[in-house]
Specification:
Length: about 450
């Protein structure tokens, strides 16, 4: 099985397509040309255009604001606008939040993207935390207003990004996870507009939720909030939409990696009578969990070898097969997929489901700006322990990216780095015994 894993180290789990691959190389060429031929006048011209776009966010006409938001997004994708943010951070954030509160669905989607890019650009610190605290209420209210899929997906992705960057403690992260989860499971009295979520929204909810779970220690989660989520993800594996199945598969792999299955499983329903009630409940819960694990293992095995149906895109089918082959190998043998992604000649490597899900999510969110940000965004360098060759000058070789990240922010970043470290240590300590995660094991951490 290990050999099969190594043969698929570069499997299409990164949601990478041919267009994105070509963008990677062409973007790096364009950025190099700009760095060589760029002048102070060009920089001033860029800032002037950004200033104009920011001014346009005060205009009454919605279409004018939409064009301005699109221009700001393009500017943040093509370059890291640190000087502009230093001068106009508060104004830009306030105007984007106004767009979310009062704008059309399209305007809300655009503003959400700008806020997410703003958070990724400023990195961890007071500004990122301010973005989260100022944005969470407007985003929550906008999610309840209408079922427009494009708007809802953009808001969910924005909330996940700003929490990932700006969350200072597990409670803040779990608060956002609950808001995201309520899109599919609204609580009584939450005033969520009742509507049937589209496949795009379901996939976005699962992906955003799993993205934030990567920053959490499994044992810090409140089990009351996530019981039966394991069974829910299992039902999603049977959905017709392939994007839903893939998102659910990644989420399930991550849950198994946390080693806290019982927090996500819940006990078998129904009262237990007679003496020894607690012992019966424990046995019922264990039986319920074992049955659920067996079901998931069978589903994963089927999806790893699914035949193409009518109208099935071959590439999408291959992505699904590759993902579920990796999930199957992880559940059966404990091997996590090792993935390498080339960024302008440098390699970003992941060796856990947690890091892989983070890489997938951020790559998807940044789109055409992914290469530029991976090359120059220090926050992303620290998240993935990635140091581009062109950025090594002046860096103390004795200090790792993870160490720099922890020193720079003793709160949220330390927690996230610690989580990733503990996940890896748990995997090492539990060993790579054959069948460790397969059915029949009943000793997961709680």
């Amino acid at each position: 099985m290990g050999k099969r894993n190594s043969q698929r180290k570069n499997a299409a789990m990164l949601d990478t397509d041919d267009d994105n691959a070509s963008v990677s190389s062409s973007s790096s060429v364009r950025s190099d040309r700009m760095s060589v031929s760029g002048t102070e006048e060009i920089q001033v011209d860029k800032e002037s255009k950004l200033d104009q776009a920011l001014d346009a966010l005060f205009e009454k006409r919605g279409s004018t604001r939409e064009k301005a938001l699109a221009a700001i997004t393009e500017a943040f994708n093509s370059d890291l606008q640190h000087q502009f943010i230093e001068k106009k951070f508060a104004t830009l954030l306030h105007q984007c939040l106004t767009c979310i509160k009062k704008g059309s669905s399209k305007e809300i989607a655009l503003a959400s993207r700008v806020i997410g890019l703003l958070a990724l650009t400023v990195g961890c610190g007071d500004n990122a935390h301010e973005i989260l605290e100022e944005s969470i209420t407007p985003i929550s209210q906008a999610l309840k207003s209408s079922p427009d899929s494009v708007k809802v997906v953009s808001l969910l992705e924005c909330l996940a990004i700003i929490t990932f960057v700006g969350g200072n403690d597990p409670e803040q992260t779990e608060r956002s996870m609950q808001i995201i989860w309520q899109m599919l499971h609204p609580k009584l009295g939450s005033n969520v507009v009742a509507f049937r979520p589209s496949p795009a929204v379901i996939a976005a909810v699962v992906s955003a939720w799993a993205f934030l779970l990567t920053t959490m220690d499994g044992w810090t989660l409140n089990p009351k909030d996530w019981q039966e989520s394991l069974a829910y993800f299992s039902t999603l594996l049977d959905k017709e939409d392939r994007s839903i199945r893939i998102a659910a598969g990644e989420a399930l792999a991550l849950i198994f990696e946390t080693g806290s299955l019982e927090k996500f499983a819940g006990a078998a329903k129904g009262p237990t009578a007679g003496s020894g009630q607690e012992g019966n409940k424990s046995r019922d819960g264990s039986t319920h969990l074992q049955g659920l694990k067996a079901k998931i293992l069978n589903q994963v095995r089927d999806l790893s070898s699914e035949a193409g149906g009518k109208g099935s895109a071959k590439k999408d089918l291959n992505n699904q097969r590759n993902l579920f082959k990796d999930v199957l190998e992880f559940l059966e043998d404990g091997y996590t997929p090792e993935v390498s992604l080339k960024i302008a000649g440098d390699l970003v490597r992941t060796s856990s489901w947690s890091n892989l899900i983070q890489l997938n999510f951020l790559k998807h969110f940044l789109g055409g700006g992914f290469v530029k940000h991976m090359q120059e965004n220090e926050f992303l360098h620290d998240v993935f322990g990635f140091t581009p060759k062109r950025s090594t000058q002046g860096v103390d070789p004795q200090v790792s990216g993870a160490e720099k990240r922890m020193f720079r922010s003793p709160n949220s970043v330390l927690n996230k780095a610690r989580t990733q470290f503990l996940n890896k240590q748990r995997m090492l300590s539990e060993g790579r015994n054959a069948g460790h995660y397969a059915v029949g094991t009943g000793d997961e951490e709680t």
